């Protein structure tokens, strides 16, 4: 028996949700470029969950169902208020809050199809409320309730900042949500599927996935990209700083991908958004640094920029705190996790691979007082 480190190249399941073929990404067969350029995030969630695009009535109903489920229990707000907010990372707060939402959902352990779909809607709707409530409480402000007339993307920014966002901000944020929604069998989605394949509940699956997304090799990279950029003084210092990191065997955050060879199709959209938004908000230096770093890493290491690279300067331009970047990823990706969880339940088998044993063999047991 031999093993493949990191399960590279292993096909672990069938799925009808998203595909990456020849570096082309599709959601339910629709090219990511078409969706990024044309669709609302609500349409994409509907697509991932129902395997079809909604018509106008279906979309309106779905949008209103989402907004009417956005409120979170007071106990969760009180819990967020009880943390030492100077040390708790928002991803840790989100992980705990989603687990708490399960405790407060009377249908948490009801495994019927409809109950699971209803819970999926509630989780998707409540995640932005949790993230924005945490961000506001941390700044000494009270959480803000969503507005019925705003889209999902606009409501996130409204609940975060307490004022109506500009159209350009909503458009950019909506596109970012669309681009992050699903990505085949990435680490957090696989985690969610492994968890619920034991027939554990949907809240456990999403909580586990949040834990996996938090890591710097996955969703946690976007926050680290911004840390790297802000630590570099000027555009001229970008390449020397990267050379130093490579000399120290550090990884360059936002670069490289397990599946994409020539490039991540989402990165070009975020790159363009970064160019426009950094210019508009007086942060062009981060875009200029980013293109230098991208070119250098491509040329010297043959690695492409991934989705986390340019999203960092996009969110920075929108005035969002850097440690909220990964929770935003989760607010989008939960749509994909939920689609995969429902797909797993629909045709389930326990996921239980094998390990190649490489430890010592044939040991003789010594009683404790003889060791
Ligand atoms: C949403 C997402 O999850 S996208 C990914 C977000 N993560 C990051 O941006 C973190 C930085 N990138 C990485 O760590 C990796 O490229 C990953 C985790 C994305 C993919 O990892 P893997 O497919 O396992 O590649 P692995 O880590 O084995 O790297 C292969 C080689 O490329 C090098 N490499 C890969 N990524 C990078 C990088 N970002 N910077 C420098 N070197 C890198 C490795 O050092 C290794 O070199 P070696 O063979 O000389 O030891
Ligand atoms: O697919 C992966 O391994 C990581 C990734 O880009 C994502 O989850 O969006």
UniProtKB/TrEMBL annotation:
<dbReference type="InterPro" id="IPR016142">
    <property type="entry name" value="Citrate_synth-like_lrg_a-sub"/>
</dbReference>
<comment type="pathway">
    <text>Carbohydrate metabolism; tricarboxylic acid cycle; isocitrate from oxaloacetate: step 1/2.</text>
</comment>
<keyword id="KW-0816">Tricarboxylic acid cycle</keyword>
<comment type="similarity">
    <text>Belongs to the citrate synthase family.</text>
</comment>
<dbReference type="InterPro" id="IPR002020">
    <property type="entry name" value="Citrate_synthase"/>
</dbReference>
<dbReference type="GO" id="GO:0006099">
    <property type="term" value="P:tricarboxylic acid cycle"/>
</dbReference>
<feature type="active site">
    <location>
        <position position="308"/>
    </location>
</feature>
<feature type="active site">
    <location>
        <position position="257"/>
    </location>
</feature>
<dbReference type="InterPro" id="IPR016143">
    <property type="entry name" value="Citrate_synth-like_sm_a-sub"/>
</dbReference>
<dbReference type="Pfam" id="PF00285">
    <property type="entry name" value="Citrate_synt"/>
</dbReference>
<protein>
    <recommendedName>
        <fullName>Citrate synthase</fullName>
    </recommendedName>
</protein>
<dbReference type="InterPro" id="IPR036969">
    <property type="entry name" value="Citrate_synthase_sf"/>
</dbReference>
<dbReference type="InterPro" id="IPR024176">
    <property type="entry name" value="Citrate_synthase_bac-typ"/>
</dbReference>
<dbReference type="InterPro" id="IPR011278">
    <property type="entry name" value="2-MeCitrate/Citrate_synth_II"/>
</dbReference>
<keyword id="KW-0808">Transferase</keyword>
<dbReference type="GO" id="GO:0036440">
    <property type="term" value="F:citrate synthase activity"/>
</dbReference>
<keyword id="KW-0012">Acyltransferase</keyword>
<dbReference type="GO" id="GO:0005829">
    <property type="term" value="C:cytosol"/>
</dbReference>
<dbReference type="GO" id="GO:0005975">
    <property type="term" value="P:carbohydrate metabolic process"/>
</dbReference>
């Amino acid at each position: 028996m031999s093993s493949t480190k990191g399960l590279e190249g292993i096909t672990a399941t069938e799925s009808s949700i998203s595909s990456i073929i020849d570096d082309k990404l599709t959601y339910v067969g629709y090219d990511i470029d078409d969706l990024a350029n044309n669709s609302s995030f609500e349409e994409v969630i509907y697509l991932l969950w129902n395997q079809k695009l909604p018509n106008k009535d279906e979309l309106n109903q779905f949008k209103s169902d989402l907004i009417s489920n956005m409120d979170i229990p007071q106990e969760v707000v009180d819990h967020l208020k009880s943390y030492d907010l100077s040390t708790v990372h928002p991803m840790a707060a989100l992980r705990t809050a989603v687990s708490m939402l399960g405790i407060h959902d009377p249908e948490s352990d009801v495994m019927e199809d409809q109950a699971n779909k209803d819970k999926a809607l509630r989780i998707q709707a409540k995640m932005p409320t949790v993230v924005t409530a945490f961000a506001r409480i941390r700044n000494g402000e009270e959480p803000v309730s969503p507005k019925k007339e705003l889209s999902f993307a606009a409501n996130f920014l409204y609940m975060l900042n307490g004022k109506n966002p500009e159209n350009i901000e909503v458009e950019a944020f909506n596109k970012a949500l669309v681009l992050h929604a699903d990505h085949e069998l990435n680490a957090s989605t696989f985690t969610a599927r492994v968890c619920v394949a034991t027939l554990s509940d949907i809240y456990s699956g999403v909580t586990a996935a949040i834990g996996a997304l938090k890591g710097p090799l996955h969703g946690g990279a976007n926050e680290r990209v911004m840390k790297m950029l802000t630590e570099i003084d000027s555009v001229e210092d970008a390449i020397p700083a990267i050379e130093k990191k490579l000399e120290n065997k550090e990884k360059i955050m936002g670069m490289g991908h397990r599946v994409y060879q020539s490039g991540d199709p989402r990165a070009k959209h975020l790159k363009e958004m970064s160019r426009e938004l950094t210019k508009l908000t007086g942060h062009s230096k981060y875009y200029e640094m980013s293109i230098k770093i991208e070119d250098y890493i491509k040329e010297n290491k043959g690695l492409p920029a991934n989705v986390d690279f340019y999203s960092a300067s996009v969110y920075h331009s929108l005035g969002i705190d850097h440690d909220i970047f990964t929770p935003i990823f989760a607010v989008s990706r939960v749509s994909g996790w939920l689609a995969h969880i429902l797909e797993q339940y629909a045709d389930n088998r326990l996921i239980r691979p094998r390990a190649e044993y490489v430890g010592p063999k044939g040991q003789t047991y010594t009683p404790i007082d003889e060791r």
